[in-house]
Amino acid sequence: MSLRKLIISVAAAAASLGLSACATGLPTQVSRFQAMPAPAGQSFVVRAADREKNGGLEFGTYAALVRQHLTGLGYREASSEADANFIVSLDYGVDQGRERVVATPDPFLDPWGYRGFGRYPYYSRFGYGGFGRYRSPFFWGWHDPFWGGYDVHSYTLYTSFLELDIRRASDGQSLFEGKAQARSRSNELPRLVPNLIEAMFTGFPGNNGETVRITVMPEREGQARN
What we know:
The protein is of the alpha+beta class. 22% of the residues lie in helices and 37% in strands. It has 4 helices and 11 strands, in the order H-H-E-E-H-E-E-E-E-E-E-E-E-H-E. The chain is elongated.
């Protein structure tokens, strides 16, 4: 593959990852192991895997979504752990992110590689200096001849996760173990976790030992959730 084609393919892949989850849906990989009994009114409580989160407003928001899905399937919420048939454990988070490089064709290619004078000093991959429209060390305004007229910059890609475990309260027997993971340019948990929960419960409980890829599409304005 030529360098030009390689750069274009990298740019296209990066652009697809860079789209907002709220606008296009969040592609999610879901792994599930399950031995769930058929819903027959069994009771449950939702608890945080990190017990310090129990009672927190953020955790309460996500726990409410899990309860909504479980009651919609035919289970019912218990008043306490002592009255519950199932203990549902919920965990979630996002990593620190990784930098990714993107190269895109520049329709305003300046053969001298300066983009004009009198603007802001920028950081290039060779260090600080020159003039261009970028000031961040993560956005390179330099037209390196190696790239043949392409704008090169980088962005941060985050990996978020959600883990859902369900155990029988009487003996601690595991009934469901699920993990959902997604990559996005956002690290905002209030935007990511609801999508991960939706993906986890799509086709719930699923087949034992399966790994599926699910993209939860956003609702259109005024569209009610089923």
